[in-house]
């Protein structure tokens, strides 16, 4: 029961119209007695998969137009959400900070300027901008040089006090410490690419003339590279930063070029090193050392860089499920509301937002979902997804969610290789979530009648490979749902590439760019 390509386009248009204006009148006269029983039977059949025999499964489906609960199993059971946590963080951030919110990064000076000499310190102050690139620090350094400064007699001061000094989130696994998706959080940081993976460096290897050449993006001497790799007939290489150090050890064999995204140990010191290097490139010499401290109250602004807006940041944040964006926004909310850039203050903002919008009890331990002590029910997620439809920012937020079956990386995001060629393609807008033994998919889909539906699917404690195809089958079945003519069959999925691994978000697997 698949649509043609023309009907898929038409379906996508219907979906966009159904969701863009928020709550509205049904597209057709809805008869609750038609289709619902078949839907229940089909979802039950999908969930009878043997992989879920020992697992926990919570599923809720609701009509966004009538408020009717079309399906529910374990709707109120608390489950591990993984990256579905980002639905709460992102919605609270937009509500609290606004779509036009920007992160400023500022250069200040103390003392006085005499000719080309600054008799005092140069201060680099951050507010958490996850989009700062090496080229942005270079532009700030160029502005310092344009101000006529060639020598700074004092120190280079890195001011990261906008946030507290807790770098790693609650309950994060120690063996994730060097992974870029669990990078330390700081008000001063830098990204190596336009996915804006703040707090990480890309380490690349390539075989040249029988030896292994190592490069970093951006070029930096902040990391200490220990290269033990050898050129070989195949690429089987491990690039790993040693726990609690700046040392990256490379072992194995290299035939073809390979890259790994590696989290730095101290994002503040790393960002300051990029800025100091850029200052030297532009002829500005800082005589003193680099230290981390708060800027004096009398420091004067020399230059400033403004980030993209939060509305723009939502795209790489939600499409690619960026953990660091979630944690930075959490601390930014805490700073905005209570003057404290801490996890506890920011998480209170997120949970208060949820409660104010009718969401039942939730347990948030971080902003991204890396913590296994995060707890949500599928019912609470559907409550949130229902409530935000009335928000003035909903359309921007909705479009920033991953879109099923759309191959464009910044459109389909973590759903780009799923549900292609089905009625769910270019229809389902939903947030994915993955940890070992955990997968979730929650969002919006438009039925075959043009009725907007809200759903949450949470699967926990399975021991098999990732059962994301079960989520896909349910989402496709919802796209086929009709009250005017019962679907009468369980959706059959066309085989799709779900990516090379099931325990992490597709977009977290950087080297393979799944």
UniProtKB/TrEMBL annotation:
GO BP of this protein: peptidoglycan metabolic process; proteolysis
The entry's keywords: Carboxypeptidase, Hydrolase, Protease, Signal
Signal peptide (residue range): 1-20
Molecular function terms, GO-annotated: serine-type carboxypeptidase activity
Presence of keyword Protein biosynthesis: no
Coiled coil: none
Database matches in SUPFAM superfamilies: beta-lactamase/transpeptidase-like
Keyword Hydrolase appears in the UniProt entry: yes
InterPro entries: Beta-lactam/transpept-like (IPR012338), Peptidase_S13 (IPR000667)
Family: Belongs to the peptidase S13 family.
PANTHER family noted in UniProt: D-ALANYL-D-ALANINE CARBOXYPEPTIDASE (PTHR30023), PENICILLIN-SENSITIVE CARBOXYPEPTIDASE A (PTHR30023:SF0)
Name this protein carries in UniProt: D-alanyl-D-alanine carboxypeptidase/D-alanyl-D-alanine-endopeptidase (Penicillin-binding protein 4)
Organism ancestry: Bacteria, Bacillati, Actinomycetota, Actinomycetes, Streptosporangiales
């Amino acid at each position: 029961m698949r649509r043609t390509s023309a009907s898929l386009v038409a379906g996508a248009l219907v979906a966009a119209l159904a969701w863009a204006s928020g709550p509205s009148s049904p597209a057709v006269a809805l008869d609750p007695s038609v289709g619902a029983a078949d839907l229940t039977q089909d979802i039950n059949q999908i969930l009878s998969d043997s992989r879920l025999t020992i697992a926990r499964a919570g599923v809720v489906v609701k009509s966004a137009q009538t408020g009717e609960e079309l399906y529910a199993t374990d709707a109120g059971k608390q489950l591990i959400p993984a990256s579905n946590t980002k639905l709460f963080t992102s919605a609270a951030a937009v509500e609290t900070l606004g779509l036009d919110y920007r992160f400023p990064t500022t250069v200040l000076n103390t003392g006085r300027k005499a000719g080309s000499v600054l008799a005092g310190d140069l201060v680099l102050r951050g507010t958490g901008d996850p989009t700062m690139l090496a080229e942005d620090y270079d532009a700030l350094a160029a502005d310092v040089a344009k101000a006529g400064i060639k020598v700074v007699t004092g120190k280079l001061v890195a001011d990261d006090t906008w946030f507290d000094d807790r770098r790693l989130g609650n309950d994060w696994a120690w063996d994730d410490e060097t992974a870029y998706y669990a990078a330390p959080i700081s008000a001063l940081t830098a990204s190596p690419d336009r996915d804006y993976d703040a707090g990480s460096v890309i380490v690349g290897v390539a075989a040249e003339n029988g030896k292994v050449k190592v490069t970093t993006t951006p070029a930096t001497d902040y990391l200490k590279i220990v290269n033990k790799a050898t050129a070989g007939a195949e690429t089987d290489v491990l690039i790993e930063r040693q726990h609690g150090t700046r040392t990256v050890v490379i072992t194995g064999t290299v035939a073809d070029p390979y890259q790994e995204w590696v989290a730095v140990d101290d994002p503040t010191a790393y960002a300051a090193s990029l800025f100091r290097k850029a200052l030297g490139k532009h002829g500005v010499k800082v005589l003193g050392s680099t230290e981390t401290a708060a800027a004096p109250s009398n420091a004067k602004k020399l230059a400033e860089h403004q980030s993209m807006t939060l509305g723009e940041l939502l795209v790489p944040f939600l499409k690619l499920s960026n953990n660091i964006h979630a944690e930075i926004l959490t601390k930014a909310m805490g700073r905005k509301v209570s003057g404290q850039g801490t996890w506890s203050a920011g998480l209170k903002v997120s949970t208060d937002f949820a409660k104010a919008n009718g969401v039942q009890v939730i347990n948030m331990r971080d902003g991204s979902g890396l913590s296994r002590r995060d707890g949500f029910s599928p019912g609470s997620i559907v409550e949130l997804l229902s409530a935000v439809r009335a928000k003035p920012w909903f359309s921007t937020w909705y479009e920033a969610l991953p879109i099923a079956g759309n191959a464009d990386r910044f459109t389909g995001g973590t759903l780009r290789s799923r549900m292609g060629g089905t009625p769910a393609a270019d229809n389902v807008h939903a947030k994915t979530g993955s940890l070992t033994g955990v997968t979730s998919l929650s969002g919006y889909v438009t039925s075959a009648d043009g009725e907007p539906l809200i759903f949450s699917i949470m699967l926990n404690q399975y021991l098999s490979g990732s059962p994301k195809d079960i989520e896909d089958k349910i989402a496709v079945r919802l796209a086929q749902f009709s009250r005017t003519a019962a679907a009468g069959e369980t959706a059959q999925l066309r085989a799709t590439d779900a990516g090379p691994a099931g325990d992490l978000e597709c977009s977290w697997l950087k080297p393979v760019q799944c």
